[in-house]
Design goal:
The structure holds two protein chains of two kinds. Chain A is of the alpha/beta class. Chain A has one domain: Hypothetical Protein Ychn, Chain: A, CATH 3.40.1260. A four-stranded parallel sheet of chain A has the order 3-2-1-4, with helices on both faces. Chain A is globular and about 30 Å long. Chain B is an alpha/beta fold. Chain B has one domain: 3-Layer(aba) Sandwich (Hypothetical Protein Ychn, Chain: A). Chain B is globular and about 40 Å long. The chains are: A alpha/beta, B alpha/beta.
Chain lengths: 109, 136
């Protein structure tokens, strides 16, 4: 059980956004250092699920990276089929962790 | 406990876009989750929310957070740097056609110290960077 404060990452920018890619690399570094990283996909960020890279990141970082996007999973991993953003309830549940987080990083398109 | 809070910075007058709605939705979520948040406008974003022609979604978010005392405030570049210094997290809305140079701007104390030598240039960098994160 990792008791360290989590790092929250809101990915609303998609793959191909170099800054979002760099941000994700930094988040992965934190995960490898043992930090819990909780990534929320929204908007263009849902495309991360589509290209499979985020799943590879999650596997590489073992259990330290969580990806919260039920909508993306249910959408069959394609941006066209996915809703524009995560449900309000999912966003609120994720944001509530911010109080005790190490930081919240956000990538907008 | 996140006492330092989130600084949401608007650096574009394009506040009718889905990207802007995403920022406002995040601000509203932070407020709803009882997290400290400030909404500020700087550079090209100054006065952006003063328009009478905001999309209904943006108006709804702004009205909702205003009930909790979160209202957009215009800041000059030096004051924006002060606000960034005091924030734990940054949430930035930049122009869609920005240069993305640098791809990722990591704002730490060293960057802030150098930025104070030329706040206007720092504001430009904040607006052109692909993504921005605060590193405390």
């Amino acid at each position: 059980m990792n008791a360290s404060p989590p790092l929250l990452v809101l990915l609303a920018a998609g793959p191909g956004d170099a800054g979002a890619e760099a941000l994700l690399v930094r988040a992965l570094e934190r995960a490898r250092e043992g930090r819990s990283v909780d990534i929320l996909l929204s908007h263009d960020g849902l495309a991360w699920a589509g290209d499979g890279r985020l799943e590879r990141v999650r596997r590489m970082a073992s259990a330290n990276v969580g990806v919260c996007s039920r909508q993306a999973r249910d959408a069959g991993w394609t941006l066209d089929d996915a809703p524009e953003g995560v449900a309000w309830s999912a966003l609120i549940a994720w944001v509530r962790q911010a109080r005790d987080a190490e930081a919240v990083w956000t990538a907008l398109p | 406990m996140n006492a330092r809070g989130t600084l949401a910075v608007v650096l574009t007058d394009d506040v009718g876009s889905p990207r802007a709605a995403e920022l406002l939705r995040m601000v509203a979520a932070l407020v709803a989750a009882d997290q400290p948040v400030r909404l500020v406008c700087a550079g090209a974003g100054r006065g952006a929310f003063a328009s009478d022609d905001l999309p209904e979604e943006a108006e709804a978010y702004l009205d909702g957070v205003a009930d909790f005392g979160v209202v957009p405030a215009d800041l000059e570049a030096p004051a924006l740097l002060d606000a960034i210094q005091g924030a734990r997290d940054l949430l930035r809305l930049a122009p869609a056609d920005r240069s993305h140079d640098p791809a990722l701007l990591v704002i730490d104390d060293d960057w802030l110290a150098s930025a104070r030598a030329d706040p206007a240039a720092a504001l430009d960098t904040l607006a052109t960077a692909g993504q921005v994160i605060r590193d405390n």
